[in-house]
Amino acid sequence: MSLSTRDRTHFLILKLHSLTGIFPIGAFLVLHLLVNSLRTVGVWQYQLSIDLINNLPFLIWVEILFIYIPLLIHSLVGFLIIFSSKINLKRYPYPRNWGYTLQRITGAVVFFFLIYHLGTTVGPKLINGKEHFEAAPFLIDIMNREFQTVTGCLLYLVGIVSATYHFCMGLWSFCVSWGIIVGPMAQRNAGIVFALFGLALTALGVATVTEFSLDPIPVEATVGGGAS
Amino acid sequence: MKSKPVILKVKRQDTPDSKPYWQTFETPRKPMANIISCLQEIQRAPVTADGKRVNPVVWDCNCLEEVCGSCTMLINGRVRQACTALVEKIESPVTLEPLSKFPVVRDLQVDRSRMFDNLKKVKAWIEIDGTHDIGEGPMMPDAIRAKRYVLSECMTCGCCLEACPQFKAGNDFLGAATFSQVRLFNLHPTGQAQKENRLDALMGRGGIADCGNAQVCVEVCPKSIPLTESIADIGRQTSLKLLKDFLSK
Predict the structure, then answer these.
(1) Considering the domain boundaries, does residue B133 fall inside one?
(2) Is the same domain home to B129 and B235?
(3) Per-residue pLDDT for A139 more than 90?
(4) What ipTM did this prediction achieve?
(5) Which pLDDT value is given to residue A228?
């Protein structure tokens, strides 16, 4: 059978959905939470990391190719998957069925959270043309203001918890569906390891939100000066 | 003292296209009774709890020892075989419904041919017919035999599919039973000849990638077949085939 039959395309699209969830989207999530948690270390360390990212060559193309396009594919196929399933948690309330159902709910939650998140950060940044060293003070100012309201903090906490859950549950089901972990013991153990990993990522995100909301510090542009 | 009768609430449907309706029956509580024997009582005296004489309830059964799978139905909302549902051990009143993901023929009788069609799609057999005698098959290591024995206990009852959130009456998902049978026949030394064809059939619409890993199948399997292990194993076989096809086609 050839590689490009209609049937095989269906299979490949689902495999692509599964793969993009781990790389690059999952990898980006880990990086994003890790880099942002630098805020808990110190505001200049945090600004340094934003400066570094915003001075990368071809940044917008890297973002489009490794974040926006995979995210769009993953979301689109994800919603098709959600609509193809028939939730039966009430009748069969087993732990794994809970996991399956929550995976679909958190996927949708993260999608709408990301629209909000991009709309309040990257969107204004691009519209106002805040590039290179100008990006950090601009973005930090936005975040400082967002985390001053309870709603803002709650919104981010829900977004972060949904994203880390969706990613770590996704890691597990990726490993099962690609046949990396096969036996019941291996599946159980991997589930524990990924759950711990998920808790660590969540802690990272919660710590960052807490730091921002308790101690908002405005910054000036590292090079060029904010006043210009 | 007379013991309380068994109350059975049965979801009935006269024809494949007609609307379902509920009727309540009371049958005498007898020791060791199962749902099948209760249905037989109804067949003998098809009178509802409120005294109305009706058509006897239609259901499927055959072996009465949980190896044929034909009496699979929803008992108190949960999918299982009626023959091993002992009245003493289940809550009364008992609700009986036909499987919800297969077309109803009449009352509790459904058409499960989709499962058998799926087995045909994946060539769930070992090809030995030809124009000449192909001689004896190769020896099978005992570890493989033991693994296959468990998988071979599948009776195509449909519990795993009924409980699967990905398996719907309107879609073309093959489901856990089919995936596990592919594993069974791919493990057979002679069956391996058809391995690639079987995997091809699973790498398409309704195939292995459509599985959402809700893992309800393994929880409801009456034969305790390691279905989720089979799914992951088929996942591995298809992943390797995908890689092989990409690199060599």
Answers:
(1) yes
(2) yes
(3) yes
(4) 0.92
(5) 44
- CA–CA separation, B10 and B80 (whole Å): 15
Banded pLDDT at B130 (limits 50, 70, 90): confident
pLDDT band at B128; cut points 50, 70, 90: confident
Interface check for A83 against chain B (CB to CB < 8 A): the answer is no
- Do B105 and B117 lie in one domain? The reply is no
- Same domain? For B156 and B34 the reply is no
**B214 and A97: CB-CB below 8 Å?**
yes
Domain enclosing residue B80, as ranges:
6-110
Which of B220, B12, B170 has its CA nearest to residue B104? B12
The pair of structure tokens assigned to B172 is 């073309």
Burial of B100 (0-12, 13-18, 19+ CB in 10 A): middle
Task: Provide the whole-model pTM.
Answer: 0.94
pLDDT(B99) > 90:
yes
Neighbours of A148 (CB within 10 A): 12
Residue B1 lies inside a defined structural domain of this protein? no
**Mean model confidence pLDDT for chain A:** 94
**Chain A residues with CB-CB distance to B203 below 8 A:** 7-8, 11
Q: Decide which of B68, B95, B110 is a domain's last residue.
A: B110
Mean pLDDT, rounded, for A15-21: 97
Total domain count for chain B? Answer: 2
Tell if the CB–CB gap between A177 and B246 is shorter than 8 Å: no
Tokens 């079987």, residue? Answer: B198
B37 membership: H or E segment, kind and range: helix B35-44
Note whether A18 contacts B209, CB cutoff 8 Å.
yes
Residues of A in contact with B239 (CB under 8 A): 178-179
User: Can you give the CATH number for the domain in which B74 is found?
Assistant: 3.10.20.30
Number of residues that this document lists for chain A: 228
- Domains of chain A in sequence order: 10-214 (1.20.1300.10)
Flag whether pLDDT at B75 surpasses 80: yes
Predicted pLDDT at B3: 78
Among candidate residues B110, B144, B165, the one where a domain is terminated = B110
Residues near A131 by Cβ (< 8 Å), separated by ≥ 6? Answer: A54
> What pLDDT was estimated at residue A226?
45
Residues of chain A with C-beta less than 8 angstroms from the C-beta of B150: none
Q: Does residue A5 carry a pLDDT above 90? A: no
